[in-house]
Write a structure and sequence with these properties.
The protein is built from 3 helices and 4 strands. By secondary structure, it is mainly alpha-helical.
Length: 94
């Protein structure tokens, strides 16, 4: 399933994976939107879901600079997931 690039180095095509992740996120958000929710819950959910998807997709990207085994985008994804996950938790709890 990998594509050979740069002298035969096999790499996964990221675009189809990201497309499937974004379509899945869209359907989840459309389902959640049907319920009466507080302001910001839909936005927080979208940020958390995209950050999680981006975290896992970055393992398949090639040529990224790694810092302690993770890319910069993965660290940002972790931070966003924690911050917006907390916001989501607080909004759903009250």
């Amino acid at each position: 399933w990998a594509i050979s690039v740069n002298g035969g180095v096999p790499m996964h095509p990221i675009a189809p994976y990201e497309f499937l992740a974004l379509i899945s996120i869209l359907f989840i958000l459309l389902y959640i939107k049907r319920f009466k929710l507080k302001d910001g819950i839909l936005f927080s959910t979208s940020i958390v879901l995209y950050a999680i998807a981006r975290f896992f997709l970055d393992f398949l990207r090639a040529g990224e600079i790694l810092y302690y085994g993770l890319t910069g985008a993965q660290y940002v994804s972790i931070i966003l997931t924690v911050i917006f996950g907390y916001i989501l938790y607080k909004n759903l709890k009250t």
